[in-house]
């Protein structure tokens, strides 16, 4: 199947677009709330389920997202986007119910099922790409990307209040309701796949197993390496699994007509640098809001010693508020000047912001102010193009392959982030958080270098831009 070009005009009425976007926003919320709302609950989770429980719960969550993205988004090329979307939302609801358990192993299973719903982002962007034009596409991309940082900041604040008053399980009770609503909205308002929109042939399940082992093995290697040492037995075992699976994937790729991942395209500068940049950006900047800042705010010795509600109100909510306000404008701008150009600007500006955090790490109000700026530079200016480029840079022959790999890179990136940030944040020295910020700056600078290696995908025609705009789209 060739990837259909973005429509020059919207194929849906204004009312249908509003309902579609509403359904997709609730779909991505079913995943994002299960990630963002737990940030203020780190201490309560560790006290209730045992020391290190939060990190233990995070590993299966991100591994599942990585595996589901490389397998299920590609599968949607064959069986349809809507069918996969509804199925994964149901799985997410089941996982959320399991997270109410008082047993850590059961909670970890629930988090694994929740994590698979990470694919709602990739599926959502692909559904939008096929249905709306450039101007609308840019705004919708910004709106959906903004949900990745929370719902106008209210979710983090509400999570802090709920955690202090009722405990972290109340968060899962709320997200289960959101998940049920998402299932209903997706079933009613997401249009059925158009006739002829599905790929010919059949899913390469053998290749899917190998790519899942490669991505999952790499994620586990980073997780085990960060906690037990990079030369520890578990880390080395996962490294061998990753290498062996990748070799098998290469062999399998050359023997099937429709491989799960077209390695020839992935080797191009239109694809692999995006994967590297995603891993590095997530492994540095996004770990700040998800782990470093909440730990810093609540640490009574090296940090500010605040409770969950105050942490959310001062540090997490403002960043999410400015993100959801600015992301639609960033998406509209990206359609005009290029998604890659906006991504580079976001990385560069965030490096500056995080460097200032390192300098003023002992000043609570300086960090509060810088988190507001962070909400613009990272949460909006980086997130919006980064989450869209998987679809925009995808090959025409296998449109679900690169979005799946790009989204899977989020899980790998978070595993990398927790691997280096966990030991540093847990060291308990006076320079703990300053050290963490400077490490983010170093990794972010490497990401900036690779962003200049990334080559924007050439236009399919002069009439349609990568964002779907009818105006000519500059590459840089």
Automatic annotation (TrEMBL):
Source organism per UniProt: Mycolicibacterium sphagni
Protein name from the UniProt record: MFS transporter
UniProt subcellular location: Cell membrane
Transmembrane intervals: 17-37, 49-72, 84-106, 135-159, 171-190, 235-251, 271-292, 304-325, 337-361, 367-392, 404-424, 436-454
InterPro entries found in the cross-reference section: MFS, MFS_dom, MFS_trans_sf, Sugar_transporter_CS
Membrane-protein topology: Multi-pass membrane protein
Domain Major facilitator superfamily (MFS) profile per the UniProt entry, residue ranges: 16-459
Keywords: Membrane, Transmembrane, Transmembrane helix
Alphabetical list of SUPFAM superfamilies matching this protein: MFS general substrate transporter
Superkingdom to which the source organism belongs: Bacteria
Chief place of localization: membrane
One Pfam family named in its UniProt record: MFS_1
PROSITE patterns reported for this sequence: MFS, SUGAR_TRANSPORT_1
């Amino acid at each position: 199947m060739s990837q259909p070009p973005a429509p020059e005009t919207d194929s849906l009425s204004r009312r249908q677009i509003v309902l579609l976007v509403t359904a997709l926003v609730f779909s991505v919320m079913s995943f994002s709330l299960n990630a963002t709302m737990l940030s203020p609950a780190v201490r309560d989770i560790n006290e209730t389920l045992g020391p290190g429980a939060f990190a233990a719960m995070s590993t299966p969550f991100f591994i599942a997202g990585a595996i589901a993205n490389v397998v299920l988004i590609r599968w949607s090329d064959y069986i349809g986007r809507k069918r996969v979307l509804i199925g994964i939302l149901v799985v997410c609801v089941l996982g959320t119910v399991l997270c109410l358990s008082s047993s850590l192993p059961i909670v970890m299973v629930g988090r694994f099922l929740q994590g698979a719903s990470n694919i709602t982002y990739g599926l959502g962007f692909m559904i939008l790409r096929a249905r709306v034009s450039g101007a609308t596409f840019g705004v919708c991309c910004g709106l959906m990307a903004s949900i990745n940082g929370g719902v106008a900041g209210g979710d983090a604040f509400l999570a802090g209040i709920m955690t202090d008053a009722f405990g972290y399980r109340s968060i899962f009770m709320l997200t289960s309701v959101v998940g049920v609503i998402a299932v209903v909205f997706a079933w009613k308002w997401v249009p059925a796949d158009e006739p002829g929109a599905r790929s010919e042939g059949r899913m390469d399940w053998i290749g899917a197993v190998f790519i899942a082992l490669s991505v999952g093995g790499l994620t586990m290697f980073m997780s085990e390496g960060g906690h037990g040492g990079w030369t520890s037995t578990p880390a080395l075992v996962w490294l061998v699994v990753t290498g062996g699976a990748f070799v098998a994937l290469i062999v399998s790729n050359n023997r099937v007509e429709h491989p799960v991942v077209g390695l020839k395209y992935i080797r191009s500068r239109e694809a692999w640098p995006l994967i590297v940049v995603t891993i590095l950006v997530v492994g540095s900047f996004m770990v700040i809001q998800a782990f470093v800042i909440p730990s810093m705010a609540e640490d009574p010795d090296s940090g500010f010693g605040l409770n969950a509600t105050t942490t959310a109100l001062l540090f997490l909510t403002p960043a999410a508020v400015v993100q959801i306000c600015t992301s639609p404008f960033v998406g509209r701008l990206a359609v005009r000047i290029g998604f890659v150009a906006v991504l580079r600007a976001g990385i560069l500006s965030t490096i500056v912001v995080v460097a200032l955090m390192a300098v003023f790490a002992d000043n609570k109000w300086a960090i509060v102010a810088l988190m507001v700026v962070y909400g613009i530079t990272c949460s909006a200016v980086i997130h919006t193009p980064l989450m869209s480029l998987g679809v925009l840079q995808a090959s025409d022959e296998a449109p679900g392959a690169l979005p799946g790999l790009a989204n899977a890179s989020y899980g790998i990136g978070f595993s990398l982030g927790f691997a280096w940030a966990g030991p540093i944040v847990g060291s308990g020295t006076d320079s703990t958080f300053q050290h963490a910020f400077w490490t983010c700056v170093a990794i972010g600078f490497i990401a900036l270098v690779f962003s200049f290696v990334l080559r924007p995908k050439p236009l399919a025609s002069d009439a349609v831009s990568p964002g779907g705009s009818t105006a000519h789209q500059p590459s840089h």
